Amino acid sequence: MKQGDLVIRKSYGGDMLFRIAAFAGREAVLRGMEYRLLADAPVADLQTVRNPDELGQTKQVRIQANESLRRLREELIRQTERAGASPVTSERNQSYFELPGKVLHVDGDANYLKKSMQVYGQLRVPAEGIHCHESQMPELLLRLLPQVRPDIVVITGHDGVLKQREGWQHLGNYKNSLNFVHAVHVAREYERNRDSLVVIAGACQSHFEALLYAGANFASSPGRIMIHALDPVYVAVRTAFTSFRETINMSDVISHTISGMEGVGGIETMGRYRVGIPNLKKSPQNVNIV
């Protein structure tokens, strides 16, 4: 058994697929493959998995993720059709162009970041993605926010409640919630208006209340459950394509996530999508100024 191997935990009935991130003596540090969970387990409790698709739960989660993505695409089509039919763009049958909200996605997992950027690309969301350890996120955002100037910032990676400690209210009982809280504070120092900069923060079992009080618009996890790797992305995409004149339909957005209301929650927030006229593709591309 070595770093990078796919494994399950025998004591948990093989309920979740992990990748070994590191070893610490007889313990292994594990990162969830489908869920944003950071865990540790005795090496003796681990079993190597050679074919992940043979695990029923892993296969089911992927099916759910694909279905959520399909529903999200359909909803985005409806949203943009409504925007295109608005009075300002339908007058004289003028065509329009779209300006979805721009995303800055900071992720503690390089593989999840890659998957997330693929989804943004598929759904035409302008996005920049950065991978760094959760502890480095506050410092990184301090530098990146003025450079990127996003409409939406996603702060995510891995988290989890420390098994040997009791109580959900103390931030010290979480593996990375305090790092996420510090990162949210930096985002709110940069932009205090929650409608000007939408902040989506957290991972599996994160301290939901602390993240909201720190200034996040959406956060995980109200029920301290596992959230799917792409749940923060779904929320970001819907935010990017909801009109700046409309409040994001929180119940509808969260219904598109894998984890649902127990996994993601938030507060009333305006969207970040705009349309403009005329269609830039039909405008003169080359202008000579004498």
TrEMBL record:
Keywords: Coiled coil. InterPro entries: Peptidase_U57. Residues 55-82 form a coiled coil. This is Sporulation peptidase YabG. It comes from Cohnella pontilimi. The gene is yabG.
